[in-house]
Design brief:
Layout lengths: L8 H14 L2 E2 H8 L3 H13 L3 E7 L13 E6 L5 E7 L3 E8 L4 E8 L7 H17 L5 E8 L2 E3 L4 E5 L4 E4 L1 H6 L8 E5 H12 L7 E6 L6 E6 L2 E2 L30 H4 L1 H7 L10 H10 L3 H25 L3 E4 L2 H8 L1 H11 L1 H5 L3 E4 L5 H16 L1 H7 L3
Parallel strand pairs: 4-7, 7-11, 12-15, 15-16
Antiparallel strand pairs: 1-3, 2-3, 4-5, 5-6, 8-9, 9-10, 12-13, 13-14
Helix pairs in contact: 1-3, 6-14, 8-10, 9-10, 9-11, 10-12, 14-15
The structure holds zinc ion (ZN).
């Protein structure tokens, strides 16, 4: 059968990708959606079921928006919720988060490891990452189909090379290569740019669904990242777009680790909110929450800090919206909290300052996914399996 050859074939890959992206569908809906012959879909599903990648359920009549053909019931097919996992790792300025993600995007085994400045040296952190990946991959009977580490900063993705991560102090670290020798599993280790992965996840499965174009800004308390997706295609700029945190919002202002002065992330991340509120303690996870609570309770200093910080966000957003003209703006992490605390201010401020926002309807909203970066990292880790299911599974003994 063409397309369902020894490698699991393009038909099997297309069927698996569709079920991964869309969830359970009738077999008839899969056939209609992919425009394949029913026999090709049947063969692909048999192959995928034999590989434990999909489950074929009981027939269902006339659901999932597709004709079942001559009124016959069509079985519901879905990715196997007990099938292979991706190990997804998110490295932030102050922590490492590891999780196992299934093809149905269910996340299990989430482990957070706090980082102090003593832990961030590559000689210390890379072996710790290798241990965490091994624990996640080997602590389950499910097969590990891929690993991806989401790193902040400037990443050369094709070979997993970290050019620089400003908040960890890394420069020119061949992360994928060094991990490859330390992680005792047979799948390759991918390294991706954290913000790009998080934004892709929101676009496919979260607040970006249905948008023709989406600008998203991410903030894991320290630093701001971003991404722009147009017609499903992320703007990459050679791997360095969109460094939204380094848009200058205050010329001659505070010195940023990037070397410039007045960058957005110096004025609109959670450190900036603490500073604006006169609370100069180190960034604890709940410190910003306390300011939002105080502002909601009417505390003048807290309300002023929220107003000032949200104002800087508007300044940065204005430049980005005027440049990119997105249909939807999605604010994630700390910026989602900031937006919820100052929604009218951000909306009205953007309308007042952005000619593009005035010219067309731009929807501003917050991220939907609890672990967007892990979901995005799993997308990258699963990519080879979704292209060639059998080839990847043959290389990864259970
Ligand atoms: Zn900067």
């Amino acid at each position: 059968m063409p397309g369902t050859g020894d490698d699991g074939g393009p038909a099997a890959g297309r069927v698996l990708t569709l079920l991964h992206r869309r969830g359970p569908l009738t077999r008839a809906a899969v056939t209609a959606e992919l425009g394949l012959a029913a026999s090709a879909v049947g063969t692909a599903l048999s192959d995928l079921a034999a590989l434990d990648l999909v489950r074929v359920g009981e027939p269902r009549r006339g659901s999932s928006g597709a004709s079942t053909g001559r009124g016959r019931p069509s079985p519901v097919v879905e990715v196997n919720p007990d099938g292979p996992v991706a190990v997804a790792v998110q490295v932030s300025a102050d922590r490492v988060t590891v999780g196992r993600v299934g093809l149905d995007r269910r996340i299990s085994h989430v482990r957070e490891h706090a980082l102090t400045s003593a832990d961030t040296d590559p000689a210390t952190l890379i072996p710790a990452l290798a241990d965490a990946i091994s624990d996640a991959a080997h602590g389950t009977e499910r097969r590990c189909a891929g690993v991806c580490i989401a790193m902040p900063g400037f990443i050369r993705e094709h070979d997993g090379f970290v050019r620089s991560t400003l908040h960890l102090g890394w420069n020119d670290v061949p992360l994928a290569q060094r991990l490859g020798g330390m992680v005792p599993i047979s799948v390759p280790v991918a390294v991706g740019r954290a913000a790009t992965l998080a934004v892709l996840a929101e676009f496919r499965y979260g607040a970006g669904r249905g948008a023709a174009s989406m600008l998203a800004l991410t903030c894991e308390r320290v630093g701001i990242g971003g991404g722009f997706i147009d017609a499903g295609v992320p703007l990459t700029g050679g791997g360095h777009a969109l460094e939204a945190g380094h848009i200058i919002v205050e010329p001659g202002g505070l010195r940023c680790p990037c070397g410039a002065r007045g960058c957005l992330e110096m004025y609109a991340d959670s450190r900036a909110l603490l500073r604006a509120a006169g609370r100069r303690r180190h960034v604890r996870e709940d410190a910003a929450t306390g300011i939002f609570d105080d502002a909601a309770a009417g505390d003048h200093a807290a309300r002023e800090a929220v107003r000032v910080t949200a104002g800087h966000l508007v300044t940065g957003l204005t430049s980005l919206v005027n440049t990119l003209a997105p249909e939807r703006v999605v604010l994630m992490g700390f910026l989602a909290d900031l937006y919820r605390a100052a929604e009218d201010l951000v909306r009205d401020g953007l309308t007042a300052s952005s000619v593009v926002a005035r010219a067309g309807r731009i929807e501003v909203t917050t991220g939907d996914l609890r672990h967007a970066t892990l979901v995005g990292a799993a997308e990258r880790a699963f990519a080879p399996l979704l292209r060639q299911p059998r080839t990847v599974l043959d290389a990864t003994p259970s």
